[in-house]
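#data-curation
PF: Archiving a pair of folding outputs for the training set. Convention for this channel: one message per protein, sequence first, structure tokens after, nothing in between. First:
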Amino acid sequence: MKVVAVTVLILAVLLGFGTFAYYYLDSTANELLVMAEQIEKSVANDDWQQADSDFSRMHAIWERTITPWTILIDHIELDQINTAMSRTKKFMDTRDLSGFMSEMAELKLLLKHVPEKEALNIKNVL
């Protein structure tokens, strides 16, 4: 009976942690995506100064988010997000609209992909 109780307890802890991790990744990714959308709108309206200010805020959010994400997800994805953010910033600094839009699209795709990849569903289990 003790073995069954311990097994159920371990399963409950694992499922609880998995659920918490997914919701944390989803909420922080959505926060970053909202900021990315704001930046994209500012650039589309040719307000590069506002976009730069918003990017600084998004980067600050990313800096406090990256440490917990390091524990939860693959480091390759973190590197890809860091690279996309660096390129996006460089395109903003040079006011390169087409380069910025393409890099921002990649950044948003990477941010959307993280919670989808970590979700507990049949596609990810199999």
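PF: Second:
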Amino acid sequence: MMTNITFSLPAKTIRRLRRRAADTGRKKGVISELVDEAIASYLDALESSAEGQTFTALKGERPVAEGKSLQELASALRARGVDPRSVRIVSSEPLEPVGHMGLRVHAS
């Protein structure tokens, strides 16, 4: 079942959305499908992070604070007066690796 909803988006976002819809080559219902997919993806990401992943701040091996997000953990540390640089933060789920690339120049 489909339900109509009215909302406002910035003009730049609308232009990008229409361009993407035009790229599909179809005309009917493409914008609705794109918006539905984007919102469903966003909600899935929120629900999956809320369900399981937690972040824990450890001082030595002793847990000092815990949060469902890094922002929540930072607030908990701030409330306890703990400097975030003085703790080790671990995640209950493995984080995706971040690749760094750069050029190093050594003076001769």
